[in-house]
């Protein structure tokens, strides 16, 4: 029998939310919106690494930073390939 007012809350996870967000932004940025999500992943990963001693998640934060940098490299490669092939051309009409 439990008494009134007893605390039976589940223990909270010590995973850093910013590290998780950095990793998710880095992974999604590999496929879409890499020019936007790359810097977001880098910033969130850097803040997540600063909070890692207290909250944990240093590995995820580092992976997010690496993926954010990779997102920007992919964007640069795509931009260079586009520029080498004559740039963008929009054909509208029939």
Layout of strands and helices, then pairs:
Layout: H1 17-29, H2 34-55, H3 58-84
Description:
The chain is built from three helices and no strands. With 94 residues, it is mainly alpha-helical. Helix 1 runs parallel beside helix 3 (58-84).
Q: SSE order in H/E notation?
A: HHH
Share in helix: 55-70%
Number of distinct helices: 3
Provide the structure class.
mainly alpha
Gyration radius, in Å: 21 Å
Uncertain segments are none
Arithmetic mean pLDDT: 86
End-to-end distance: 78 Å
Number of strands: 0
Strand content bin: under 5%
Give a brief rundown of this model.
It holds the Pfam family DUF4190. Keywords: Membrane, Transmembrane, Transmembrane helix. The chain is mainly α and about 90 residues long.
Attribute tags:
DUF4190; elongated; 0% strand; 94 residues; single chain; 3 helices; YqfX-like; mainly alpha
